[in-house]
Amino acid sequence: MEDFFRCKCPITSSLDIFGDKWTLVIVKQMLFEEKSTFKDFTESEEAIATNILSSRLKMLEKFGLIEKENHPNNKKTNIYTLTEKALSFTPILIELMIWSKENIQEFHPNLNIHPDLNRIKKNKENAASQIVKSYNQFKKSLFKN
Predict the structure, then answer these.
(1) What angle do CA 131, 134, 140 make, to 5 degrees?
(2) What is the largest CA-CA distance in the chain?
(3) How far apart are CA 14 and CA 18, in angstroms?
(4) pLDDT tens-digit profile of 77-130?
(5) What is the rounded distance in angstroms from the CA atom of residue 46 to the CA atom of residue 9?
(6) How far apart are alpha carbons 135 and 87 in whole angstroms?
(7) Which structural domain range is residue 20 located in?
(8) What is the number of structural domains in the chain?
(9) In terms of DSSP bridges, do strands 66-71 and 74-82 run parallel, antiparallel, or are they unpaired?
(10) CA dist., res. 71 & res. 76, Å (int)
């Protein structure tokens, strides 16, 4: 896997995983939009191509950021879930939301701002914890029969 990375810089190496156009979108969809199947991702408004989606899901799985399991009621359907490693990225996603509101909204007035962003900004650590807790509850619900 070492040949996957361009250099030894920690920022560049992180960008080798998260820096393409789609990887963070997939993580965001899983964390905030409760998407968990290939079909869920393909039906999203971002319209990711299936070959790119497949490639990114494999890469995320290879780096231990997502897990793939068979759907309990349909063995032909895979369920993708975030791992604790991926969930540790939640504070960075929160910072990106805040940065977008403060720096992009003037250029993109129709930006979909999270309704609780002001509350989230006041206590980012607590917000991240609550987002992760909510995701983990959703994740458990996926495998209940």
Answers:
(1) 140
(2) 46
(3) 6
(4) 999 999 999 999 999 999 999 998 889 888 988 878 878 888 899 999 999 999
(5) 30
(6) 9
(7) 2-142
(8) 1
(9) antiparallel
(10) 7
Structure tokens at 2: 């070492």
Q: Are 81 and 142 in contact (CB under 8 A)?
A: yes
pTM: 0.87
Phi-psi region of 48 (alpha: psi -120 to 50; beta: other; left: phi over 0): beta
Q: What DSSP line would sit under 55-109, residue for residue? A: HHHHHHHHTTSEEEEEETTEEEEEEEEE-HHHHTTHHHHHHHHHHHHHHTTTT-T
Residue 92 burial (CB count, 10 A): 14
DSSP H or E segment with residue 53: helix 50-62
Planar angle of CA 24, 133, 17, nearest 5 degrees: 20
What number of other Cβ atoms are within 10 A of residue 65's Cβ?
23
pLDDT tens by residue, 8-50: 788 888 888 777 889 999 999 999 999 999 999 999 888 899 9
Please check whether residue 79 is in contact with residue 36, taking contact to mean a CB–CB distance below 8 angstroms. Answer: yes
Instruction: Return the CATH number at 64.
Output: 1.10.10.10
Structure tokens at 76: 């032909």
